[in-house]
Amino acid sequence: MLSIIQAAGWPIWPLILCSILALALIIERFSSLRELRVAPPKLLDEVISVTRSSLPAPDVVNKLADNSVLGRVLASGLRAVINEPRITEENLRNALETAGRVAVHHLERYLNALGTIAAAAPLLGLLGTVIGMIEIFGSQGGATGGNPQQLAHGISVALYNTAFGLIVAIPALIFYRYFRGKVDEYILDIEQAAERLVPHLMRFTAAR
């Protein structure tokens, strides 16, 4: 590996940095976008069951908010009804939408960085290719003829950087698309859960 890095020249170092950053982002997103941390399947049913006859205590709502991303959205709706017993449906929806926007921002965190790496890595590889071609052309001509060592180094720089740029970009793009799809699914699940919770909570405002 060290010999490959030496043969690729200095243009490969930005690509190595991109590969390390992309790997860290992928691991972080895999951890943060797990279903249990975002939208547990039975969480909404449990909330509706617990609040079937009365609203929960504040400590229960806090535990719900700490449960997951979906839990924070549902807890915002419960807090809105607890703090304002005569809340209108529009204001309740606004509270849920505000919490939903915060949740979406949390889910999409670092995805733009991963997408940027996927787009930039081939360009960095192309930069290395251009630098290698410059060395190749520089090895030709002159009073003493061509320089085989410089020619070989230029070819190595061009080929290694092109290959490494694609090696970094392709997995980064694949995982970017994968995480984007998961985020879209979670957003849909959160929206549907909020829609189910609104009429359930409005029963308490009507009763009061």
Description of the structure:
- This is MotA/TolQ/ExbB proton channel family protein.
- Residues 67-191 form the MotA/TolQ/ExbB proton channel domain.
- InterPro entries: ExbB/TolQ_transport, MotA_ExbB_proton_chnl.
- Keywords: Cell membrane, Membrane, Protein transport, Transmembrane, Transmembrane helix, Transport.
- This protein has helices at residues 2-8, 12-32, 35-38, 43-50, 58-67, 69-83, 89-107, 111-138, 148-207.
- By secondary structure, the protein is mostly helical.
- The radius of gyration is 27 Å and the shape is rod-shaped.
- The chain starts with a helix and ends with a helix.
For the structure shown, list the relevant keywords.
208 residues, mainly alpha, rod-shaped
Cα-atom Rg, whole angstroms? Answer: 27 Å
What is the strand content?
under 5%
Count of domains: 1
Q: Helices and strands: which structural class?
A: mainly alpha
Indicate the percent of residues in helices: over 70%
The sequence of SSEs as H and E is: HHHHHHHHH
What's the total count of β strands? 0
By DSSP (H or I, 4+ residues per run), the number of helices equals: 9
Mean pLDDT reading: 88
Model regions low in confidence, pLDDT < 50 over at least 5 residues: none
* Morphology: rod-shaped
End-to-end C-alpha gap: 71 Å
- Main sheet properties: none
